[in-house]
Amino acid sequence: MPDLPDLTPAELDAFTRLYGLQGPLERLPSVGIVNRVYAGTLRGARVVLRVPMPGDHDDTLTESAAVPAAFQAGIRTPELLIFDDERRVVDAPVTVYAFAEGRSLEGYGWAPGDRRLTRAWREAGRELAALHAGVTAAPDPHGRLEVIAPVNTGRTLQRVTQGGHLARQEAEWATCTVARLLQENPPPTTPAFLHNDLHAGNLMVTEGGEVTALIDWGDAGWGDPVLDLCYAGPLAAPDLLRGYEDVTGLDGGARLRLLAYLLNDATRRLTTPPNPDAPQLWYTHPGTALTQLLRVAPQFPQWAAELGR
């Protein structure tokens, strides 16, 4: 992914003076499509300055409500030190975070079965359990933490059939199965506070696989706790679930909702345009998520009975 454009020297100097940062500010690689990220020092501690592209400010506004709630609950996430929406330097809200040690799990390239990868996902599952139990309310005067919408099986059906990615009969089987599983196994009536985008790029870990931080809370909100086990792809889901259940249990229908969410996601990803030059990641090729779902299915005996109905 190419880096986003640099801030100008004048803009960097203005931020340094405005927030009392000690420079020079060091540009860090872009890991998304929104924020320019710089490392610096504030009062002797390493920090990160994050400046979104103009117009791409929604995630930053959501994080201003989500991160303090997660941090105060003891979740391993960098503290939000400064949130500035006065837009005195650029037309975007700006944040300064404590520095997260380690690097993104995605950057290590560990293969499935690697003990470090297993450790990372299992620890992440424990953090999610602590998050869901620890944040029952969050100050949100501007309504930035939205209720996460349920999956739209009608949209999935339309996408895969209109593009010829699946025969209609198979597409209807997949989407009807998802709809049935969710109808028969509804989520808890009280929604959980979700990170809502926990994938390998948003998980900071050490070289040994120890989780140091969950980052990028721009999609956080309220919803079914099982959703938080899905965004890392099918191969990660079993270890996330095991870690979660190291801390606390989920409701009786959780495993079947996990199947429903993963099946819906794998089906809709069949519409991903083929690109032989794309990175070898689970979400960059159209059939990978579906293949991974088949690989993990034997770990869930309950799934076989439901898929055979």
Automatic annotation (TrEMBL):
Residues 30-233 form the Aminoglycoside phosphotransferase domain. It comes from the Bacteria. InterPro entries: AGP_Transferase, Aminoglycoside_PTrfase, Kinase-like_dom_sf. PANTHER family: AMINOGLYCOSIDE PHOSPHOTRANSFERASE DOMAIN-CONTAINING PROTEIN, AMINOGLYCOSIDE PHOSPHOTRANSFERASE-RELATED-RELATED. This is Aminoglycoside phosphotransferase domain-containing protein. It comes from Deinococcus koreensis. The lineage of its organism: Bacteria, Thermotogati, Deinococcota, Deinococci, Deinococcales.
